[in-house]
Amino acid sequence: MAAPGRSTLLPPIDHPGVVQRPAWRLSAQATESFTANLIEEVPVALIYNGVSHAVMLASPRDIADFALGFSLSEGIIQGPRELLDLELAPAGEGIEARMVITARRFAGLKDRRRTLAGRSGCGLCGIESLSDAMRPLPTLADRTFLSLRAIRRALDGLAPLQQLNQLAGAVHAAAWVDPDGVIRHVAEDVGRHNAFDKVIGAMARRRGGRPPGFALLTSRLSYELVQKAATTGISALVAISAPTALAIEAATRAGICIVALARGDSVSVYAHPERVIDLNEAGL
């Protein structure tokens, strides 16, 4: 057994985003070595028209979806057609997402340019003013309805689709779910915001655009996730963990139905309960 502290690199396994490293398990009975599956985490530079805008730590899968989703959810572009070109290139220990956006959107980006100090757990990190952090959210015209049956079906179907989580854990997942509870797309990432951005980007790239439905998130539901949903026109969010007060306040104003603490046997509704079919049928 190699001594603890000596780095013995193992060849990558056949799953992008997961690597193997030696580790040691200590217990009262024994000490044993084992091979650990670990989630990769790399810096991803988001570059617009030759200017670096943000560096985020992310799982190195679905980076094209991430770049488009981030561009949409941060309001840098208003639609996928305003992203004129996207090239992914290795750069040092990370990846550069080199994008070309329309001159109008790039001018707007320069007007409110900010630098994000990328951390996998960050949401609004690096924003230079309170007005940037709490930018006004649109009031959504869409009124997606939810049912307990669809939510339960989505929850039951999510775990088998979380490949990275099954291999190594340590990742969040986001999914796009149709009104019947059928999962149409799943993305995983070390960052909960990144996972959501990947789903947003994948649905924007989809032929015919994003179908009706709702987003399912494995993470806690904080303000910046509601902000991303409102900016991209997603009017219903379901989260496995709990929401924050600010997230609920923002969702109520923006017209986003919020269901959280979603379990197989129960869910909690925090915003726009009139859009949950089961509550309407119960006369609440």
What does this structure look like?
With 284 residues, this protein is of the alpha/beta class. It has two domains: 42-133, Roll (Ubiquitin-like (UB roll)), CATH 3.10.20.10; 148-281, 3-Layer(aba) Sandwich (Cytidine Deaminase, domain 2). Helix content is 27%, strand content 29%. It has helices at residues 63-73, 103-111, 130-133, 148-158, 163-167, 192-205, 223-231, 245-254, 277-281, and strands spanning 18-26, 31-39, 42-48, 51-58, 83-91, 94-101, 116-117, 172-177, 183-189, 214-217, 236-239, 257-260, 268-271. Strands 9-8-10-11-12-13 form a six-stranded mixed sheet, sandwiched between helices. The model is unreliable at 1-12 (pLDDT under 50).
Q: How would you name the CATH homologous superfamily of the largest domain?
A: Cytidine Deaminase, domain 2
* Unreliably modeled segments: 1-12
CA radius of gyration: 20 Å
**Biggest β-sheet: count, sense, barrel?**
6 strands, mixed
Strands across the major sheet, in which order? Answer: 9-8-10-11-12-13
Portion of residues in helices?
Answer: 25-40%
CATH uppermost class of the largest domain: Alpha Beta
What is the beta-strand fraction? 25-35%
What's the N-to-C terminus distance?
63 Å
SSE-based structural type: alpha/beta
What name does CATH use for the topology of the largest domain?
Cytidine Deaminase, domain 2
